[in-house]
Amino acid sequence: MAQTAAEPRLATAKGEQSLTGKRAQDIIAGYTFLAPAVIILTVFLIIPMLAAIYFSFTDWNGITPLNRADAYGFVGIENYQRLLFEEGRRQEVFFTSLKNTIFFVIGVVPVQTFLALLLAVIVNQRWLRGKGFFRTAFYFPSITSSVVISLIFMWLFTRNGLINGAIGALFPNYSPVTWLEDPNGMIHNFLGLFGITRNTVGAWAESEIASVSLWNWISGPSVTMFMIMILNTWTTIGTLMVIFLAALQNIPGQVYEAATVDGASPLQIFRKITVPLLRPTTFFVITLGLIGTFQVFDQIFVISVGGPANTTLTIAYLVYRSGFTDSRMGLAAATAIVLFIIIFVFTLIQRRITGETANK
Amino acid sequence: MATAAPSVPVGASNTPVAQTIRRLVPIIGTLVLVFFALIQILPFAFTLVNSFKCLPAINAAPGAFVPVAPFNVECVNNEGRTLSAEATVNGASFNPTLDGYQEVIEGASLPRWLFNTVFIAVVITILRVFFDSLAGYALARLKFPGNRAVFLLILGTLMIPGIVLLIPRFIILQQLGMLNQYTGVIIPLMVDAFGIFLMKQFFESIPDEIEEAALVDGANRFVMFFRVVLPMATPALTALAIFSFQGAWNNFLDALVVLQGAQELWTLPLGLAFLRGQSGETLRWHQFLAGSVITTVPIAIIFFAFQRYFVEGVNYSGLAGT
Predict the structure, then answer these.
(1) For the packed helices A131-139 and A89-123, what is the interaxial angle rounded to 10 degrees?
(2) Helix (H/G/I), strand (E/B), else coil: A74
(3) CB distance from A135 to chain B under 8 Å?
């Protein structure tokens, strides 16, 4: 009796000891394992994020050493004021870059999402031969350097390049487009086909919103920007397709079988089963697309440096230019913060739209 | 259910029209894929072919794609005159040359860029795999106060767009004296939130019985992590390593901001971008194309060797979104 009572007590005591020992070890190990990651992320991500906010309220030029007392002054919200509200060149440049970026995003995101889904659905079909080949072919561009892709596309789209050559072979009347330096807006060009130009459209076109004329607001992406949009879509489709494909393969086969037994046509199956089940993935793909396209930079740097006539100036490139070319780090930081807020808001709106339809 | 049934034409799948459609769908589908596959592949194919041409031939006949003898022609003859396009191109055939490669290797210090790129990418990859898996493991398995908070913090950093960090990261690296140094591009990138997230997901997906057994046997967490946990994580580690390597290899923005002032530290993307920037009116395509090929081949070899892991890694990231 005494023995049997003592034994469990001993066991619990031993268990408790090893348990607290294990717990203490877990805590020490946990902090040690996480320390490097937390330090690096704090120093190079979180502090910079706060520093960006801080410097956006200063007029630092990026050159004067920060340890000098007169390195920078506080200017309050002046940088934001100049970018967003005060009429003038800064506002014009910012809103031009905003307009360019938005045309870019609106053009690229839906197209690349749709094409990626289309390709994924076809690659996922049971009758398809050579799945591996197609997946490789589509994915390959997205592992290549953005600088390399930009150089290749520049070369393909030169005036005497392969693209103009190919179009010319198909349409003998085609007069070669100078893709790399054509500032004309695609919507302007389209309107021009019907004889609608800045001069014929009426006086409203000249009134300005945020220092940019209404006529320029509706320019559409310039021809050069359009070419960069093609490039961007071309590069991204592969990654997005592989993501869609993974999601498609996660849909259990029984779901389709049940639908087929119920007599649903392939189109009905796609609309009523595949699309709803892909909602979370679609949300993810669109979010990735938004975040990526809002920050387009490398391609602009290599191909057009913002030109011609500022038509490929994106917000991301403007941040770089203000900071490093114009030596206005404070203004550049403010521009970056505005971009951050824009991306955040767009993602929220997007989540709203996709989320609500998903609940239906 | 009952209301839905009538809208489905019963037996419709057996009409001749439906049968024809069913036979046509695979053909059309395959054609669509072939069309897009060509669009994705042809630019690379033409880049590769044209990188072996003399500049005038690239400009005048980018479409010529059959290499014929004489091989390895000199684009500039003994009198210093460049061969005209006609001299090296005949219809669809052309005489290959290595001039573009020679110029970019001897004239533009490409070997140096290649070395820098390899060095930076390898170091980042090793550090990242190590620190991301440590952190991912701690978040997945270890119970300690603040675990959840740290996880949310790391997740939150995923939302910070890289371009926002452009300016302040420059400022901080400047303060730390890390501009124009290898460390300036390596240390900020030696940990990444996405990798931690990926490793956490992975560790949560494997059973913890083996670890428990090792703990009972008296191994401590540190020893066990290296002896037991990491060997089990090879697939996830490989995926993470490949992603890190590819990202570091192609990274342009960080290299631009940090290494711009130190030419001897330029990476391949940075070097190529500046090569293009310096070239003014006459774009030296033979050099750009040769440089592009050299930049792409190593990553392409890795891609074909480890393709499975690329796809797996994307799947992980896809799951992260769901």
Answers:
(1) 170
(2) strand
(3) yes
